[in-house]
Amino acid sequence: MLRVEGLSAWYGEAQALREVSLHVDAGEIVTLVGRNGAGKTTMLRCLMGLHGSYGRTVGTISLLGEDITGLAPHRRARRGLGFVPDDRGVYATLSVEENLTLPPATKLGLDPWPLERVYEAFPRLRERRRFAGTKLSGGEQQMLALARVLRTGARLLLCDEPTEGLSPLVVQQIGDILREVKAAGVTVLLIEQNVHFAATVADRHYLLAEGRIVEALDNDQVREREDELLDYLGI
Ligand code: ATP
Fold first, then answer.
1. Which residues of the chain fall below pLDDT 70?
2. Which ligand 1 atom sits closest to the C-alpha of 17?
3. CATH code for the domain in which residue 46 is found
4. What is the pLDDT of residue 31?
5. What share of the chain has pLDDT > 70, as a percent?
6. Range of the domain at 139
7. What's the structural domain count of the chain?
8. pLDDT on residue 102
9. What's phi and psi for 147, nearest 5 deg?
10. Which residues have C-beta atoms less than 6 Å from ligand 1?
11. What is the number of H-type helices and E-type strands within the chain?
């Protein structure tokens, strides 16, 4: 689905990514784990084509075997890339339903999720459908941000730390939603600091340190090394 080769990125003179190579296969959930400042957000911005407004990149990114390295963000979105940013990007003055009906369908993505299907998967959003974005809790905003990308028919979701700051119950709900998203054939690359959660929801993991991939881990390795990883991540 996604293949990244030799990706480096800079902010001015400061290098944030160093020759990162990774892949995500169709139908997988893969996490990017790393300390604050390791380069995780920069990685997602590069994949979505958003790093250009910050600085320079080299390397190649391909989606479904096609080189998308030079494409603008909206063209990547049309090919089925969906970005769920860490600030969630919910339109604060619009209602939940307006947020859900705004995004256009992608041209080369999966079938966009109809509103009814979104409400089945996210019953909380149905209850809140007339509420303005500002009136939502952090968890509800996260659900709305995820649902909005599914409405476009995205085939690969890039999620920047969807569980950050959420209560354990809501984290569990986000996990259920991600599993449902995967069952619907959507592939996910996820930034995640909660390694316990990561091992319950994802298939594989990459550990990023100082802009490099230092380890590729499977779930058993993450579970065996959970304490060490939490210590390393400073959590
Ligand atoms: P966090 O979880 O804290 O967001 P991260 O792993 O996502 O961390 P990035 O945000 O990608 O890390 O940051 C990687 C490096 O790039 C850091 O050294 C950071 O200070 C730097 N950086 C990030 N954004 C900018 C920016 N807009 N301008 C300059 N440097 C930046």
1. 103-108
2. 14
3. 3.40.50.300
4. 97
5. 97
6. 2-233
7. 1
8. 82
9. -65, -40
10. 11, 14, 16, 34, 36-42, 54
11. 10, 10
User: What are 29's two structure tokens?
Assistant: 């959930």
Distance CA 38, CA 81 (A): 23
ipTM of the complex: 0.94
Task: Give the residue, out of 36, 189, 191, with the most ligand 1 atoms within 8 A of its beta carbon, to mutate for a pocket test.
Answer: 36
DSSP secondary structure of 74-129: HHHHHTTEEEE-TTTT--TTSBHHHHHHSSPPPSSSSPPPPHHHHHHH-HHHHHTT
| 133's tokens | 């974005």
Residue 74 has which token pair? 């909206």
- Tell me the CA–centroid distance for residue 161 and ligand 1, in Å: 14
Return all residues near 42 (Cβ < 8 A) that are at least 6 apart.
9, 16, 17, 51, 54, 211
Contacts of 107 (CB under 8 A, 6+ apart): 78, 79
What is the tens place of the pLDDT at every residue in 107-126? 667 888 889 999 998 999 99
